[in-house]
Amino acid sequence: MGPGTDEGTTMTTPGTVEDLVLRNVFGVFGERDAAARAAAIAEVYAPDAVLHLGAEAVRGTEAIDRHVQALQDGTPGFVFRTLGEPEVDGGLGTRAWGYGPEGAPPVVTGRDVIRVEDGRIAEAFVFVHAPAGG
């Protein structure tokens, strides 16, 4: 298993809401190889998808890729890990995550909520929880 992956987790092709919420954590936000991440974004996000980050909205797959790259550039050595189990209700899915240095407790946690249309993420809402003590 690679850094940050759950034991027993398999990456599958996009389509089901549960698959997409997991691939969003690892294949998009957790992928540091730019070409692999761009391919994953093209597979799991609709071309006109919107990523909601508080008051900010990132529109389109190229802008989503730039946002993820900027996040990773500012956090070298950090990995994502999932927390708990995904929840799915129709075309909506959610998954909690932690982000921090590999081998250490997460320094920030959050939750993604995705809305899926036609087998791809149409909208993703990212809720980031304040770091411990902050």
TrEMBL record:
User: Which Gene3D superfamilies has this protein been placed in?
Assistant: 3.10.450.50
Q: What is one Pfam family matched by this protein?
A: SnoaL_2
Annotated signal sequence range: none
SnoaL-like domain: from which residue to which, for each copy? 35-123
Q: What is this protein called?
A: SnoaL-like domain-containing protein
